[in-house]
Amino acid sequence: MDWVTLDEYLVIRKKIYSIGLYIQKALVVKCSKRGNGVYSYRVSKRFELLYHALENYEIEKDDCYVLKSDILFFTLTYSVRDIFHTFENSGKDYNRFMSNLRKIFPRAKTIIRCFEAQNDGVLHIHALIWIGTHLDVAPWINKEGDKVFIVKSYDLWLKLKNCWKYGFCDIKCFTKLREGLKYIFKYIKKATDIDYSDNSLTTLALNWLFRKRSFSINYKLLRFLFNVRLDTYKHNSNSRTILQCVGLIIEYDFVGVFSKKQLGLDGRRWFYEFNEFPETLINACWGKWDTPF
């Protein structure tokens, strides 16, 4: 927790030069650490981009007389209370679960998966899965009073639950992938934002200790299903070409990583740009520049 909450900043030197012109600026950017506000914001923006991209592709199904779903949300829990056992074997156990699921739906693939530790440290696996066929679903009001969808066939529901052999299995259905994204995102927030819930610190610590990714997204499957591409916002290098044509060149040099105290910052902002170098910044970075101030 001390490492996550320690505010550290990347220092980058921006050089602007041409004939008779040389300017140095300092760009100071707060580091993204798994669990801090910068990391949580970047994860939120990634899901927001994905959510809005799907608006143009996803078919509206709520007005259909018979509701269908090909997106299932699984919460897989362990009956074993051994933290080491559950985290160390979670990958193999999940692969066995998917193998069992493909015996029922051969085309089933994971869209998004995340890990969540309870307050006692026992692992939950949350997974949004595309099954490759449409099932009849029925609306249901859960104990929190929210409307959810469940598998209509009891026999099929029982078969799906039995795919997980290590504890309890909860299954929900979604008629829109976007709704499934919103639902799983609240669990992902627990693993990416240290202040989100009571068990966020436990989740972050155990994911780090056992070398687990907070979450994973199957972009290849999303491109296959919806022809959605999220890599369209790329850096345009034409700006550098234009600047060179007018005789102006801009270069960036990485200087190092420094704490908020070293740089003398108030820490309330994520980004600073200095037109002139503050004395505290010069002292902190002394010896790390290839040219004098």
Task: Tell me what the structure shows.
- With 293 residues, the protein is an alpha+beta fold.
- The chain has two domains: 2-33 and 234-285, no CATH class; 58-226, Alpha-Beta Plaits (2-Layer Sandwich), CATH 3.30.70.1910.
- It is 35% helix and 30% strand.
- It is built from ten helices and ten strands.
- The protein has helices spanning 2-5, 37-55, 83-104, 154-161, 177-190, 200-209, 219-226, 238-245, 260-263, 279-285; strands at residues 8-18, 21-30, 68-77, 109-117, 123-141, 147-151, 169-174, 215-217, 249-259, 271-274.
- The strands form two sheets. Strands 3, 4, 5, 6, 7 and 8 form a six-stranded antiparallel β-sheet that branches. Strands 9-1-2-10 form a four-stranded antiparallel β-sheet.
- A hairpin with a 5-residue loop joins strand 5 (123-141) and strand 6 (147-151).
- Helix 2 runs antiparallel to helix 5.
- It is elongated and about 80 Å long.
- The relative contact order is 0.21.
- The model is unreliable at 232-237 (pLDDT under 50).
